[in-house]
């Protein structure tokens, strides 16, 4: 896919898609969307990049090793946040009772552990989408 | 008249049952593996439609906290949240079955289950 | 009160191990092995402690994040789920130890880490399904379980494996969708997803919506029936279980199928309750399918030439026994069926592991090539013989005790016709298991040179098989060990 128009447009548009994905992830607790939708947007930006620049270029930008470590760390992050609830004297994934900062409803920094969990889910979903796509097109 | 009215009021349930049956028919009758996967996706969609319809409240708005105050009628958010999980599961199953079909195509050179069965039968005899 | 978190710790340690394995450097398989054994030992220890705590302090529920059970996810840790969790962890521990050696023979070295990731996610989802008290959570775990159980078949990159696992996946997905539709119908009637809450709601209003509930249960049981391979829905099982790598076959046949039966117990007796289930006449139909399966599974098994395929068809027949006990809907029937879950799990894993050892050592899977193999592999064939005698129902082995309990339950429920079916099925089991034993020990192999070879299997493969065989015999002589635990577990379903 050696097309100058596609490459230029991709180069222009990928940062905006990624910023939008990060926006959706970070505002997961106060607006529609969240980890899964934002992560899917973030992952699809990389898929667009792979489609227009080819796999070798894309794996130089984000190697297979990095995506698999990101996947693992997404889940481990979720588990650690959940265990923090037990450590602070509640149950697994406990939020308000463990004394996390709740803030004011509607503000960006609020709702205790929910933004942190959303972040973990976003990383996990984005890296999984990239890994899946790269693995499927690698094999032929 | 009553009957037509009843159907019109529950059109989403009727549609979901129709989609379920269409999907099941596709899975059972088509010998092309890709079409079987499409049939499964149609069945999944029908059930998602059914589940979301249960939570629908007439004239309800999206369940986002209303900071301006005042009572607003919300739809039931639980089925929608569950179906989000269901969609994730459906996507992963589709991805997995498609990758299996790619592998089968590489091995046998066809995506038709009848042909694959014929090839396997010949392999056993020869 | 740290002990209430133990089930969560078990689930999380399995999940964490599953995701850590792929990022360990793939050349250092020794580290992976150490991690696997450490995690499983921790899980085993925590399961034992959970069971002790439950017997001491009684069962309890665990709400995730302290959410109310009407909106949150809830685990229930009672005599049943703690006991079955222990059974799953202990048996899979033995199978995983066996697999550490055997898997080198079955799949490519670069896929080892992938295989163990899948096995740990498989264990995670099975324990989740056993502990959960939430219908939708059950569905999610079920989907994880179906994807991973298909993957541990297709990981052996052969043509037959791809076909078997695609067929398994398509049927499994249709089963899951059918379960989801049933859950949606139950949610429509009750407005709840928590099993206890649905029970409380439905027991008041079931007279108003008998058809809705019947349709919902029909969909759920059909879906679970596909996944648990009840007779007319078993078509995926022989291919899937016979082509898979041996450790996968053992896991799938002795544990995975049983987990779906636990869900069926939960749906029938926890969500709906005995009154409604018997009032709607559901158990009678279950016994019909079970009885047909007991006969037909054995008849299909007689015609098989491949040893693993024969064992797979035998599973279909044995699942019929379990569903027969379930379909009686009495305390005796349920305890017989739970007992048979344990004893069949042990016997079938012993059979699959010893069959796998024969394939590992001799590279032969045809039943006609097994003449005189008892002298070349004495320990393996002794394990095989013990388990095969258990399947037939020779006294002194756990299979006999489960058949005895089931016969008493059938007589207690005043349905003597099923006693005849149990006897016919045992006879048919003898028809296909005895010839293997006879040809292994009494026939002479054409090209055997030495008189008595010493077993040359790796120790890592022998020890788990011998432990399982000893357990099978011990339960056969002292069935009270398991029966007392089972009798404590049954009252969580029936009173």
From TrEMBL, chain A:
It comes from Alkaliphilus serpentinus. Belongs to the CPA3 antiporters (TC 2.A.63) subunit B family. The chain crosses the membrane at residues 12-30, 36-55, 75-93. PANTHER family: NA(+)/H(+) ANTIPORTER SUBUNIT B, NA(+)_H(+) ANTIPORTER SUBUNIT B. Its main location: membrane. Keywords: Cell membrane, Membrane, Transmembrane, Transmembrane helix. GO terms for cellular component: plasma membrane. NCBIfam families: PRK08386.1 (NF006248). It is found in: Cell membrane. The keyword Membrane applies. InterPro entries: CPA3_antiporter_subunitB (IPR050622), MnhB (IPR007182). It is a multi-pass membrane protein. Pfam families: MnhB. Residues 5-130 form the Na+/H+ antiporter MnhB subunit-related protein domain. The lineage of its organism: Bacteria, Bacillati, Bacillota, Clostridia, Peptostreptococcales. This is Sodium:proton antiporter.
């Amino acid at each position: 896919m050696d097309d100058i128009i596609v490459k230029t447009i991709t180069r222009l548009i990928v940062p905006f898609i990624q910023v939008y994905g990060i926006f959706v992830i970070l505002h997961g607790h106060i607006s529609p969307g969240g980890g899964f939708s934002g992560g899917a947007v973030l992952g699809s930006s990389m898929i667009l990049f792979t489609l227009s620049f080819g796999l070798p270029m894309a794996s130089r930008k984000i190697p297979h090793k990095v995506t698999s470590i990101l996947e693992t760390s997404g889940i481990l992050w979720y588990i650690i946040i959940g265990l923090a609830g037990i450590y602070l004297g509640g149950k697994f994934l406990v939020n308000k009772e463990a004394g996390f900062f709740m803030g004011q409803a509607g503000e960006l920094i609020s709702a205790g552990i929910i933004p942190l969990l959303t972040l973990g889910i976003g990383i996990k979903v984005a890296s999984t989408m990239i890994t899946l796509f790269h693995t499927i097109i690698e094999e032929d | 008249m009553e009957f037509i009215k009843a159907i019109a009021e529950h059109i989403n349930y009727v549609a979901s049952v129709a989609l379920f049956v269409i999907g099941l028919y596709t899975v059972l009758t088509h010998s092309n593996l890709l079409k079987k996967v499409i049939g499964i996706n149609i069945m999944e969609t029908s059930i998602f439609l059914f589940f979301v319809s249960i939570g629908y409240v007439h004239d309800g708005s999206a369940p986002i906290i209303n900071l301006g105050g005042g009572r607003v009628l919300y739809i039931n958010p639980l089925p929608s949240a569950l179906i989000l999980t269901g969609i994730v599961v459906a996507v992963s199953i589709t991805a997995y079955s498609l990758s299996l079909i790619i592998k089968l195509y590489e091995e046998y050179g066809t995506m038709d289950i009848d042909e694959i069965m014929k090839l396997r039968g010949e392999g056993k005899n020869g | 009160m740290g002990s209430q978190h133990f089930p969560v710790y078990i689930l999380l340690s399995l999940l964490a191990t599953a995701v850590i394995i792929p990022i360990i450097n793939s050349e250092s398989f020794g580290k992976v092995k150490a991690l696997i054994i450490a995690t499983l030992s921790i899980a085993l220890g925590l399961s034992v402690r959970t069971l002790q705590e439950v017997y001491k302090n009684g069962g309890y529920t665990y709400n995730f994040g302290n959410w109310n059970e009407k909106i949150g996810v809830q685990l229930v840790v009672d005599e049943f789920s703690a006991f079955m969790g222990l059974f799953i962890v202990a048996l899979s521990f033995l199978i995983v130890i066996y697999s550490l050696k055997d898997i080198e023979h079955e799949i490519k070295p670069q896929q080892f880490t992938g295989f163990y990731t899948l096995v740990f996610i498989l264990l995670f989802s099975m324990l989740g399904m056993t502990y959960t008290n939430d219908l939708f959570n059950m569905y999610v775990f079920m989907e994880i379980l179906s994807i991973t159980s298909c993957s541990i078949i297709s990981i052996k990159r052969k043509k037959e494996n791809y076909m078997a696992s695609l067929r398994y996946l398509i049927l499994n997905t249709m089963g899951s969708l059918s379960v989801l539709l049933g859950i949606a119908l139950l949610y429509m009637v009750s407005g709840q997803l928590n099993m206890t809450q649905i029970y409380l709601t439905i027991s008041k209003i079931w007279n108003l919506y008998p058809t809705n509930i019947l349709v919902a249960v029909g969909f759920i049981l059909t879906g679970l029936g596909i996944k648990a391979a009840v007779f007319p829905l078993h078509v995926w099982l022989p291919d899937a279980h016979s082509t898979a790598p041996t450790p996968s076959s053992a896991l799938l046949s002795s544990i995975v199928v049983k987990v779906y039966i636990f869900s069926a117990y939960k749906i029938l007796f926890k969500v709906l309750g005995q009154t409604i289930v018997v009032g709607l006449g559901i158990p009678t139909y279950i016994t019909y399918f079970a009885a047909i399966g007991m006969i037909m599974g054995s008849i299909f098994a007689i015609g098989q030439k491949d040893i693993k395929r024969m064992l797979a068809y035998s599973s279909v027949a044995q699942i019929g026994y379990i569903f027969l006990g379930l379909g009686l809907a009495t305390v005796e029937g349920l305890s017989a069926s739970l007992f048979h879950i344990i004893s069949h799990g042990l016997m079938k894993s012993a059979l699959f592991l010893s069959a796998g050892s024969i394939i590992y050592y001799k590279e032969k899977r045809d039943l006609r090539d097994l003449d005189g193999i008892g002298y070349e592999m004495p320990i393996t064939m002794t394990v095989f013989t013990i388990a095969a005698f258990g399947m037939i129902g020779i006294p002194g082995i756990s299979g006999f005790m489960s058949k005895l309990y089931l016969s008493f339950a059938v007589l207690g429920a005043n349905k003597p016709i099923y006693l005849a079916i149990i006897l016919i099925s045992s006879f048919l089991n003898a028809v296909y298991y005895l010839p293997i034993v006879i040809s292994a020990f009494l026939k002479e192999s054409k090209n055997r040179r030495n008189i008595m070879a010493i077993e040359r299997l790796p120790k890592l493969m022998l020890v788990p098989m011998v432990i399982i065989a000893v357990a099978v015999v011990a339960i056969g002589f002292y069935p009270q060990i398991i029966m007392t635990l089972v009798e404590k577990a049954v009252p969580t379903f029936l009173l």
